[in-house]
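Supplementary material to the annual report.
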Amino acid sequence: MEEIGLARFINTPTGLKPGEAANLASLHLELLRGKGIAQIDDALDSLDGYLRLLGGRTPPPAVEQELQRLTYAIIEVAETFGYQSLGKSAYSLFELLDNIGVSGQWDRDAVIVHMESLRLLRHPEAVPPEMQTHLLDRLRLVVARHRTGSSK
Amino acid sequence: MAALQPNSKFNFANASVLVVDESQIGQEVSLTILSSYGFRAITRSTSLQNATEHLRFKPFDLVLIDPYAFGEASYKFIKWLREDTNNPNTCVPVIVTAAYTSMRTVAAARECGADYIIAKPFSCGGFLDRLLFVASKAGHRSELAVQQTVSQEGSGMEIW
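Predicted assembly:
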């Protein structure tokens, strides 16, 4: 049977083997490392800026959305460039913001704890691995307090 | 349908892919990985409107879309693609890429007719595995009637 769609491009006489292609991709991604880390730092600075401006106030929906967007920007690249714990803590913050969006209950303390963790984990070499694990576990507990049935 | 045989090769040099992602770095990461896999014809879109135009006039072998920035509109976009039987891409494999995969995302992707969800960030080997899996299923969708391709198990959708 003649293959159609993407199927016609696999099991070909010439081309790449999966291992070769994955290695090439890892190598080429390294060229984006600078941009990726710049995106993380910009997003962290912007998040900090918004939280400082907000003080004790509840963010309007547009700001809440922007906080989510900035957090998404960190998740998108952190683990790609070796910042596993940073990526996980950003994911935790996104989940928290998602839950807050559903419940409408802003929790500055929970967000600030996440922000401080993100700042710490941006420099993972300064945080022992067991401390990173502990930190992520604590963040999970913070998010669990906010989890709503309709969100997850 | 042909799964990739052990030790065999693939060649995406003549395959065309559309990457729909509002994030510039997201696009660059996808582009870098796809070109490392051998894709040469990569079209990028940062808006659904632009993606729609491309899909109307050019056949693709694969569509990747990150729905985050577009919200609900991205799922309507995939549904439109599936239901527009005059579109040359109505049966193209659509992979949703998402850095945050809530149950809502999975349910929405399933209902609109996407084939697969891949969590960002991609691991270079993991992304390729999923891509080859989707490739091995490609063509299956076109054997089905349109109403079967949306939100039905066994339609070629592999969403978990």
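DSSP finds six helices and six strands in chain B.
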